[in-house]
Amino acid sequence: MSPGTRPDWGVAWWVAFLVCKPVLILVRRRDWRGLDQIPPSGGVVLAANHVSHVDPLLIAEMVLAQGRTPAFLAKSSLFGEGIVGRWFRAAGHVEVDRSHGGDGFGAALTALRGGALLVVYPEGSITKDRDGRLLNLKTGAVRLALESGAPLIPVAQRGAQDILPAYSRRPRLLKRPTVTINVGRPLNLTDLRQRGLEPEAVRDGTRRLADTLGQMVEELEGGQRAD
């Protein structure tokens, strides 16, 4: 965050930050790369790989440190009654109600056009691959970027699964692993935007995202094995 920048996180994010930041410092080391790729304002789609239930918190920490407020696409059950539901609504996350065949596209598009930084997991769920390889990507992140005109930025991350393994409820709090988050360059979608949301353009964009993000993930995994 540049000197003098005053982040507008809202009360909900300030509370979460004050509660969670000391815990994060204790349970992980951090290695953040490519932070200058995140625009200081305006709608943005960050498309990240998904390795653990805890990685949204780690990505949010990185985004908040750049003076931006992240909004996540989140399943509708998280917006129910109680403290969690109130926090999700107050923090500006986007509800996805799959029970009625929805994907949250309209709400996400409105948020982007209003200048939101939207974090999307294009795999749709946590990868089960032991080496962290990507699942097949869904098209939502590319559709949002094409329709809104917002930059589509791939984000590769590794290390969250060493704090809380995929689909586990038992955190490993003593290892203090390094969590690496690498923010890539925005994908070039200029030629595809001229074609609108025609299916082939969306598929081409999704393939580009899969190739780029997959390579970034492999590079992180390769570096981890080398260490």
Describe the model:
- This protein has 227 residues and is α/β, with parallel strands linked by helices.
- The protein has one domain (42-226): Glycerol-3-phosphate (1)-acyltransferase (3-Layer(aba) Sandwich), CATH 3.40.1130.10.
- The chain is 40% helix and 16% strand.
- Helix 3 links the parallel strand 3 (70-75) and strand 4 (94-96).
- It is globular and about 50 Å long.
- The two termini are 30 Å apart.
- Based on CA atoms alone, the radius of gyration comes out at 17 Å
What is the mean pLDDT? 86
Termini Cα gap: 30 Å
Proportion of strand residues: 15-25%
CATH class: Alpha Beta
Number of E strands? 7
Q: Assign a percent range to the helix content.
A: 40-55%
| Neighbour order of strands in the largest sheet | 1-7-6-2-5-3-4
Put simply, the count of helices is: 8
Q: Could you spell the SSE succession in H and E letters?
A: HEEHEHEHEHEHEHH
Uncertain stretches of 5 or more adjacent residues: 1-8
Q: How many independent structural domains?
A: 1
Shape: globular
- Based on secondary structure, the structural category is alpha/beta
Q: Main beta sheet, described?
A: 7 strands, mixed
Q: What name does the CATH topology carry?
A: Glycerol-3-phosphate (1)-acyltransferase
Judging by the overall fold, what is the CATH architecture? 3-Layer(aba) Sandwich
Name the CATH superfamily classification: Glycerol-3-phosphate (1)-acyltransferase
Organism: Nocardioides daeguensis
Pfam family, one: Acyltransferase
Domain Phospholipid/glycerol acyltransferase: 44-160
Keywords: Acyltransferase, Membrane, Transferase, Transmembrane, Transmembrane helix
